[in-house]
Amino acid sequence: MTKLQNAIIGGVRAVLGQVPASWLPGGTPDPLIDKRVALGGQQSRIDGPDKVRGAARFAAEVAMEDLLYAAFVHSTIARGRIADLDVSDAEAAPGVALVMTYRNAPRIGVPPPIGLTNLKAAGNHTLPIMQDPEIHWNGQVVAVVLAETREQADHAASLVRVRYDAAPARTRFEEGKASASTPESILVERNRLDKGNAGQKFAQAAAKVDGVYTTPWESHAPIEPHAATVAWRDGKLIMHDATQMIHATAGSLAKIFGLKAEDVHVSSPYVGGGFGAKALWDHQILGVAAAKLAGRPVRVALSRASMHRLIGGRTRTEQRVALAADADGKLTALLHHGYGVKPRHSVCDEGFSLTGRSLYACESFDIVQHNVELDLLANSFMRGPGETPGTFAIECAMDELAHALGMDPIELRRRNAATRDPVSGAPHSQSAMMEAYDLGAARIGWYRRSAEPGTHRDGEWRLGMGCATGTFPFTRMPGTSARITLDANGDAHVASAAQEMGMGTATVQRQHAADRLGLPVDRVTVTIGDSRLPFASFAGGSSQTASLAAAISAASGKLAIQLMRLAGNDTPLAGLKPSEVEFADGGLRSVEDPARHESFASILRRAGRGELSAIGESGAPLEVLKYSMHSTSAIFCELRVSEVTGEIRVDRLVGAFDCGRILNAKTATSQFKGGMIMGLGMALTEETLLDERTGRIMSTSLADYHVPVHLDVPDIDVLWTDIPDPRTPLGARGIGEIGTTGVAAAVANAVFNATGKRVRDLPLTLDKLL
Amino acid sequence: MSIRVNDTEVPPPDDARVSLLDLLREHLHLTGTKKGCDQGACGACTVLLDGNRVLSCLTLAVQAEGREVRTIEGLAGANGELHVLQRAFVERDGLQCGYCTPGQICSAIAMAEELRRGDPSYVTPDIAAGPAAVTREEIRERMSGNLCRCGAHNGIVEAIELMLAETAA
Amino acid sequence: MTPLRYVRAADKVDALARVSSGARCLGGGTNLVDLLRQNVEQASELVDISRLHGAIQERDDGGLFIDASVTNAALAAHPLVRRRYPVLARALLAGASAQIRNMATVGGNILQRTRCTYFYDVDGARCNKRQPGAGCDAREGFNRYHAILGASDQCVATHPSDMCVALAMLDAVVHLSGASGDRSVPLADFHVPPGATPQVETVLLPGELITGVELPPPTDAMVRSDYRKVRDRSSYAFALVSVAGGLALAEGRVREARIALGGVAAKPWRARRAEAALIGVAPQSDAFVAAIREELADARPLSGNGFKIGLVERTVVAVLTALAGARA
User: Distance, in angstroms, between B47 CA and closest chain C CA?
Assistant: First the structure.
């Protein structure tokens, strides 16, 4: 983002601050906040039976005639050029149909980068793909081999010989810090925040802490590897993809390959875990290019090693957090400075320094973050980008401050709970952080915790408890649209190119549409996952549910108008305006006189219509510029640390969430737990090993990159305040990412409580506790 | 020699390099068995080979000649009704994206048999006596070869407990 | 993976003939198939011995003979193993996952290769084990999992097996067959330190194959034994360090001590110096510390694994302390 964008957003915010709430989206609270039938229930996910049968079809599982299998050859240097390529052995190997390199690859455009201004862009970096001999990172694809079988493709790929002219590469974090850049903006926020003379307040404070916290490179590690099955038919492109951005991928491919948007069809009904990783990366583009060149369909299914070479993860961060408080524990200064890696070709900000700007009331702030620009694979968004590493630093610092003050860590949060946005002064749309703390503290039995570290033990194990706040902003994406079609029976069919990767998208929106339209859930279907359906934004930023809900709500409004028009005068509803009717009992009825009702089926029948459709769209999310809209959570952890080995065993996690109203108790619980377990992995074991001598990732298997196993995961309790946010559709805020935030800090704080050791460097492997 | 897959005889592949997993997915289009890592580190490809849970990614298809393979597609009843554990997974939400799910289910079904036999695990207190009780710790250790990244672990353990309770009753 | 032929051995003689003419022995395949697929190893022919008779037989002297093709799962579940050699059952159950233990064989487990990540990165990393003389990227790279004992300038890799650590502790003997007949080698001598030839990992000669493993009659310290594995995850991860320990006491003194270490060397490390230092001493923590320190006197940590020295010490002391306190 540029200075100009900073000025524009700042200007809009200033104006909206003066605009009455009723003019904005969410100005009138969504009636479904209180009128819930299916919403808020425990419905099992509707795709569950297919998934447990193995019948849900993923991208690498689409059968096609004449299919070729792709294998990749990756560069082994970080920077330089290809000096010599010998593909003759590979071309001569059994079953090989094509070896594609920069020499014969089709000339294609550069992927349009993901951004908030172009919803049809999905590129994770801005480099040309296989268009020249230049090497930009260790692992870049230098050749694609297509063969009749996977075994033949893999073998032939091993026969490609490449010689490089290596150039000096910047691959070391410490060295890169000296020349780090300082961007004007992080996402849509101005980067540098200097308010209230924080330096001076810090110097004069009664109590202060000042520490450096580091988090490592991390990998999304979805269990489904990235894959695409691609076919060209009559100049049109079909891609069965694993993506959390269907339309953006289709739009990007159209641009890259010079196609009309309607000639690109992307299908992605199920995604086997995304967490930010399932975007548009080189493998799909190379697969499409190779399929074009070979004139045959292609399956690209990445190996784990290829995933680590082609799919960027979360950057490592180094964050200094300094907190100052008066003797009562009121924060007087919050300083948050840090570094993350963002290669020049990368498009994703790891906005860890945004975390502290909304979390606590504080007199002064001094915040800025810097980009270390290295010759590496582009970093990308991973579950809870920004807030996940950000809460680790800030929430450990808060625990340290509580300890320094001799104050209970929950009490410290209570004294600093913000009543409005501490930086902008904007009102909260809804915020109840301390209610979450009270719920969580009661559930875990916080009273059992001893303030003195190292007090409780059981044999060789030292026992401890810790807590931390999690947070994630509310986002609603504009442009997401949904079509509702009523059929002759009066049943409703919702369609949108939204994404399902385990969140329960269709399950929840079916509940929503049922309640919105006054139908039982079994008279509603929801179809998603295909670019031929109405446009939807990405599944990211925890925005999809709100965006899709806004679209369905808008569509239902249009549907009501159309129904009233069709109903004409021979209806019990005659004479009513659309604003005077509401959906109920499979039809429309008068708000004033509920006895005046006509069913959808009846209206359509009288009008001689077999069906009726309306499309609605999620409008501009102006509410986020007027209100401070953030979810918060209180995470609690109870654990043991072995005095013998330093091993940590987490015995219990409790997460209490303030995320507005919960729409499906069963799937929401799963999503919160899932986020927390990713946070647990971050706390305990996860670290992508980047060899800084070569810029090469060395942890390229799931045996080297340790995600939690069953035995690492304890019983987890999830609670919520369930207080509606009056400014959001359904009163709900997104829940996909907040679960991950705060967990690593809660674990580290519990480790301190157990052992008296303060580890500020993730992951908390046993060697750091010996 | 043929390979018996879900009660159907299928010929082995011509290419000895073809894994049992790729035979299922690419040759037989039985895509319910998932490829997560292709190197024995995630458990998504778990199938039952002569009733024992194995990783089909590390098994060459030819190694299964003359043997019986059961996959996720072969668990439901003849008229399509779900296996008790499949039902329990849906009921307890032991899944999110669904990609590790078939492996978890196949693994757990074999695990139940191992428990019934009294096989010990690394967390069994008395290794000679075998597991005295099916604790959550026992289930978790025995299922640790099946990774889940969505974080459905609690639901999976609850679903397994539900199956063990139903089959014991 | 290069194209290859697969044959199922008709019997031991057939297997031997094929191995002596260059075929690779395939057990469960849990390591070899992965190595072949990643092009770390090549083979033109695989001879599958997993269906040769695989039995666990009790011998007259009370020992056991375990055929090479017995699976890890079957061995761990065997009642005699669990009663007489609990350290072995525990070590097996600490290894890999249930699925892998159902496939992996005893012979294959012994011959499994290091998990050094540079060894696996065929295209992008230097490794003397893979390519003699190429150099070692681990020595100055990621070496948290690497050796502190018996390593060389050429190679700092560790042997990843848990089972072998227990077998080394138990004085197990590996039985081999080759063109020139049968022979046997103590498991503790089967793997060799890397020295100048890290590509040579065992004393197995070309054309030889492992036919089985013999366990001696159980001694008191074998019966009163345990295996403790320390790793980054609580399960399904390779060892940072592991300890196989066994202890027998008489009149308040140590009569027999058995210790082997995993995750510290290119071979399962039998801690004979520590064992010797323990004979006749009172089974107390300071004696255990002194004994294991003697064993670790030659330890040479790398940049990333210095913690292993203290970790081994504490884990050994914990295992022995528990065994000393256990009621036999």
Answer: 9
Residue A573 CB partners (closer than 8 Å, separation 6+) = A564, A567, A581, A588, A589, A590, A596, A597, A598
| CB C264, CB C301: distance < 8 Å | no
| Distances C321 to A35, A458, A643 between C-alpha atoms, Å | 64, 16, 14
Instruction: Give pLDDT tens digits for A128-152.
Output: 999 999 999 999 999 999 999 999 9
Residue B61: what residue type?
A: A
DSSP string, B53-115: EEETTSSBGGGGTTSEEE-GGGSS-TTSPPPHHHHHHHHTT--SS-SSHHHHHHHHHHHHHHH
Domains (range + CATH), chain A: 59-168+223-310 (3.90.1170.50), 386-475+625-770 (3.30.365.10), 477-620 (3.30.365.10)
- From the list A94, A645, A703, the residue facing C230 with the nearest CB is A645
What is the mean predicted confidence (pLDDT) over A183-200?
A: 96
User: For residue C98, which amino acid is it?
Assistant: A
Distances, alpha carbon C25 to alpha carbons A489, A667, B20, C20, in Å: 66, 48, 19, 10
H helices within A68-187, ranges in order?
88-92, 150-157, 173-177
The full set of domain ranges for chain C reads: 5-50, 225-325
**pTM of this prediction exceeds 0.95:** yes
For residue A5, pLDDT beyond 80: no
What band does A2 get if pLDDT is binned at 50, 70 and 90? low
**ipTM of this complex > 0.85?**
yes
Query: Residue A741: CA atoms inside 13 Å, Cβ hemisphere, count?
Result: 33
Neighbours of C134 (CB within 10 A): 12
Do the chains contact at C100 and B58, CB–CB below 8 Å?
Answer: yes
Q: Which fold has domain C225-325?
A: Enolase-like; domain 1 (3.30.390)
For residue C310, give both structure tokens.
């203290």
Q: Which residue of B has its CA nearest to A675?
A: B151
What average pLDDT does the segment C201-217 reach? 97
- What was the pLDDT predicted at A308? 98
Residues 123-162 of B with CB under 8 A from A: 123, 136-137, 139-141, 143-157
Which residues have a Cβ under 8 Å from the Cβ of A522 and sit 6 or more positions away?
none
- Rounded Cα gap, residues B44 and B47, in angstroms: 9
Task: With both helix axes pointing from N to C terminus, report the angle between B84-91 and B101-117 in degrees, rounded to the nearest 10.
Answer: 120
- Determine whether A458 is exposed, middle or buried from the number of CB atoms within 10 Å of its CB (0-12, 13-18, 19+): exposed
Q: Which of B26, B95, B145 sits opposite A52 (nearest CB)?
A: B95
**Cα separation, C259 vs C274, whole angstroms:** 8
Per-residue pLDDT tens digits for B99-150: 999 999 999 999 999 999 999 999 999 999 999 999 999 999 999 999 999 9
Closest residue in C to A153 (Cα) is C1
Q: Kindly state the average pLDDT of the residues A637-643.
A: 98
Among the partner-chain residues A225, A677, A703, the one whose CB lies closest to the CB of B35 is A225
CATH code at C5-50: 3.30.43.10
**Which chain A residue shows the shortest CA-CA distance from C238?**
A703
CA distance A67 to A70: 10
From the list B150, B23, C130, C169, the residue with the least C-alpha distance to A149 is: B23
Nearest alpha-carbon partner for B104 in B139, B79, B64, B133: B139
From chain C, the residues in CB contact with B40 under 8 A are: 30, 34, 96, 100
| Beta strand ranges found along A154-216 (DSSP E) | 161-166, 185-186, 189-190, 193-195, 207-215
Set out the domains of chain B in order of their start, with CATH numbers: 3-74 (3.10.20.30), 84-168 (1.10.150.120)
Which phi and psi angles does A359 have, rounded to 5°? Answer: -75, -45
Question: Which residues of chain C form beta strands (DSSP E)?
Answer: 5-8, 24-26, 45-48, 56-58, 64-67, 173-178, 181-186, 209-215, 225-230, 241-250, 253-262, 269-270
For A370, which DSSP code? E
